[in-house]
């Protein structure tokens, strides 16, 4: 991703900072202009007090007003700086999080969960500081450029001396900016890797505790720490080196301007007040050196924006406007191929699932079962080929129509919604209480939900569930959602045998009016299906009834250890 894309993202975020960025710009510019007039006012006031300009009594109150004005600009600048950054971060976070969810499962295949959280959290905050850093750093140019002009009006030799020093400071800032951007990128990448490892460790906390492998996991999670330290030290050295260079150049610059001014004063070319003004303009012009701090922040912001742009470059699913054609959920796979990082997950799948049919998808781990389930309802698009629902390619169907037509249940469902009832109805635009209850009954979830303290109104967070109970709520959500196609991706693995048989009875009974695609590991589940699709290495090895396939010992071996 080019730096232009990152800069464009920062520019767009700046436009969404609202009136606060304009206020920050106005106060920064007004303060910079006022700073330019302050040395002159101080010099005129001194000349008036020493008698060099007896008629300049109005300069003292003007100087006081300038000081008050500068204090007010600083106060407004601090307020508007924080507010503009907050607005930019709000817009960026909404865009990034919205895009992540729009891309969906394809995003989590490319980036780990921890890395996504880091980018949507820390990196958004860093990128949002860029507009304020740009405005503040740019406002430093005005006093520096104005100081050169003012010194040229006082004495050209003073201006020449200041320009020579400013060129050295600009060189320091440019080198610092370039090197800091590279170091900050490495630092942020290492941060994301540690976050990704930590999220994985937290997900398996029970397993880690049971195995007594805490120390090993700490070492694994913190494995990128030396690289993080290396980039952090590089950033510190860059800041220190630039700070030392600025600390040397700036005093030398001020001393040189004072030395030249002293010689000009001795020759009678300057007054004491003009020398004071010249000294103040030298200090003001040398203030460009403080741009190093803002340059560092801007470098980190650009690096963070670069990481965000890599997320935003992932294409979200686009939807058409066609409704599904009339039918019972006939599903067609035409030469479907799915790859992940160059590795084929599915290869040239040609398959037709008749409408209203129950099809079990079986195969060993890694055979492509979940990938087939993902493309069947368009959680992801295939790299090649197409999937059709009742004769209409899935990308041509409107989003709302497709999501009403297809219901998904997963092995580890995430229950979203304020209450358990909301979790079952999640995804429905106009939830129907009777439909929710009926779906829960089909999933054998109604009985235990009613035993909760407030039944279906029990807050989800206050309803601790076993793995099997959570799966039943996930199944109920899919049953309530699906109108034509129901996809169960290993969604009954945690159910006991009796419950699994009862849910299967609903699948072949009341839910038989829709197409059912069931990723199965149990022999009983495959036996109850109308058809079985046997996957091996991402390809369809065989397709037929369970009874006809059972004669193959390789097929029987698929279920070894399953019940």
TrEMBL record:
Compartment(s) where it occurs, according to its Swiss-Prot or TrEMBL record: Cell membrane
Positions of the ABC transporter domain: 331-562
Domain of life from the UniProt record: Bacteria
Molecular function GO labels: ABC-type oligopeptide transporter activity; ATP binding; ATP hydrolysis activity
Transmembrane spans: 20-42, 62-92, 160-177, 246-266, 278-299
Domain spans labelled ABC transmembrane type-1: 22-300
UniProt entry keywords in alphabetical sequence: ATP-binding, Membrane, Nucleotide-binding, Transmembrane, Transmembrane helix
InterPro entries, sorted: AAA+_ATPase, ABC1_TM_dom, ABC1_TM_sf, ABC_transporter-like_ATP-bd, ABC_transporter-like_CS, P-loop_NTPase, Type_1_exporter
Protein name as catalogued: ABC transporter ATP-binding protein
Taxonomic path: Bacteria, Bacillati, Actinomycetota, Actinomycetes, Streptosporangiales
